[in-house]
Specification:
With 288 residues, this protein is of the alpha+beta class. Helices cover 17% and strands 19% of the residues. It has a domain of 199 residues: paralog of FGE (formylglycine-generating enzyme) (Alpha-Beta Complex), CATH 3.90.1580.10. The strands form 6 sheets. A 4-stranded mixed sheet has the order 13-12-11-14, covered by helices on one side. Strand 3 and strand 4 form a beta hairpin. It is globular and about 50 Å long.
Amino acid sequence: MGKISSPRFLLIGAVTGAALFAATFGLALFLAREPDPCTDGLELFGERCCAPGQSLVGGRCWGLPKSCPDGMALLGGEAPGCVARSWAISYTGGQVVIAPTDWDSEQVERETFSVAPFRLDSHEVTWHRYFGCPEGNCAALEGREPGAPVTRVTAAEAERFCRSAGGRLPSPEEWMFASMGEQARRYPWGAHGLTCRRAAYGLERGPCGTTLSSPELAGARSLGRSPEGAEDLVGNVRELTRDASGRIFLVGGSFRSRFPAEVKSWARVPHSGAPQDDVGFRCAYEVE
């Protein structure tokens, strides 16, 4: 007769096997976990990128930073924080052809457009820049992160700000040219590689987070920078643009966008007109 194993040993074997499987599975998850998404000089607090010395309160970074990354200014005063130093990037303009090239873009309709030379802000307009607060000393900033993109503004308010800065809202075509270049890049950085380290998207209901209801600091995920130096062209906040007929379109997706199609360089949707907490802007300028 064959030897029958004791139930006790069967149980121990099953438990040991389950433990080994769990440990192996856990290790695989750990190894597969995406690295810290924050730009060098910021630290991951929960699911947000904050400066050293700050704390995460209500999903926002609060407190006086000990330091800020290169390319960001450290502000003290009533609204301390790190704020991206924005500049106007020059684009030579040209023609772009958008067309299906593989399975990932098979739903894209062929489109050709041309743009004249223009300049565009390297970063989204922040609360600090919007209110024009010297060194963070501004009552209007109370309760807001100075380095986060301004949101809940109308297209008219955004246009008025840009005019005061010597510019205007970009056209959808200018914005897309900045994001994709003449190569028609799928994303600002290239054809592939949409990750949580490159774009602040899916922060509310996945895939990059589950708890956030506000955008990251402008410039917090610099691995998504375009070759020309523009940051956060996709993700973080959807951006206001105005076409030649005056219609307003939102481009780029936001921290709420869950699917890659929402953050492609060519993704754009008509704007309802109502201020929203995931909609901001950057300004365009004529070439001098």
